Amino acid sequence: SQKAVKDIQHIATVDIATGRPGDQQDITASWAYRHFPKIQGVYLRSPGDPEKGNDFKSRMLQELCGNMYLEDDARMVATILTMVQSGLLPHLQRVLLMDRPWNSGYSVQNPVYRVGNWRKKNFGWSEVVHHIHELQHE
Q1: What is the sign of the dihedral through the CA atoms of 78, 94, 30 and 46?
Q2: CB distance 62 to 43 below 8 Å
């Protein structure tokens, strides 16, 4: 919901890092700034960058040092968990996996939480806000 997106901007710093190809920079940045006008930064691969999308996101996770990460790809979540277990992301406290048809078979465990419900076409922004509030009070 639009209210939840606005709430997020008031209670947390938002950075977006996407592994989308560089030729989609303009449309992706426009979407991000339209939905999150107070966003701190949008990080995208450069046009022609040979780095794979998930490698780029992994690198950005280490550089940005956020304590929560929102992802829709279970393969990337598995990579993140490996990074956490290896001590590469000591700051990361939660990973929110957006419920999507392509990751419905992925079982979640702490620090991963599933948000939204793709069957009901509910993205789960209010759940994201809930997780942000919980982290702020830990």
Answers
A1: negative
A2: no
